[in-house]
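Your task:
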Amino acid sequence: MQFIDLKSQYQAVKNDIDARIHKVLDHGQYIMGPEVAEMEQALAAYTGALHCISCASGTEALLMSLLALGVGPGDEVITTPFTFAATAETIVLAGATPIYVDIEADTCLIDATAIESKITPRTKAIMPVSLYGQVADMDAINAIAAAHGIAVIEDAAQSFGATYKGRKSCNLSTIGCTSFFPSKPLGCYGDGGALFTNDDALAKILREIRVHGQERRYHHVRVGVGGRMDTIQCAVVLGKLQRFEWEIERRLKLGEMYREGLTSAGCNARLLVVRPDRDCVWAQYTLFVEEREKVQQQLLAQGVPTAVHYPLSLNRQPAFRNDVSAAETIKSHWAAAHVMSLPMSADLQDSDIDRVVAAMARI
């Protein structure tokens, strides 16, 4: 069993992807070819956002969003310590300081009720993370941000396709950022990402930042990056879009199968909670276990691969520490010691879920 089955997915969309890649090879516009605009239009329509700006990676999307908002030295950005390094990394690269707010113990999402106490005159943005495929409480976060005149950047690297109160992830805040890393719900075959916004002025700035701050060729009006997404990778995303809705439905079903199976089997692993006003597209099917390393070893012996997302909270990482006390982020530390992800991809068979559940129950 594969942890993420990209081979079966490719076989299902092989003809369209191959044709689209060969079209790029034929026209030779490898940078900013027509597939880039085609993908951006398709993704904007999918999310309902006015603008989609493709970029080189999900990390680049976060960095570009911070640069577009003018975040820099002396500024603070509120975020969660329980996430991938890129979230804090981009804040530091922009010259700002990440300010950590602990998570909700049952969802692993940033605790919106704890954000306001961390706002200072230096706070420039809030960056909630839509973790494992579930969106944080964006209405509450947006209300806090609006009251203080600050921006919200949704780190939606793991949640493209998810919904929150009937609205799509990436179209819930000032800027939404996602990743097309191959293992994501919508992935390409390399690095890629995108930003979404309904603000015309921000969209213009983001497009300039993407090409080294150019307003027009060789006329640089701001500091930018080389942040373009390759045309071939856009072609891959377009090829995958044909069955993306089916894949999201399948992920939702498989997640429910895991929940029902593990519960009915009497497995004592603690499951993540999905709030009733949203869904979870399960970029990773993650739960909490005691004696994690032992459980992982026993699962692997039964042919079931696992992963840990993430084993160390960011405020314990040497590169991203700040003076937040351990007591303030105790839920993040506990989660880091107990989370474990099981195999998840749309092409898993029902029998695969049964096999994993049976292995978990035995252990």
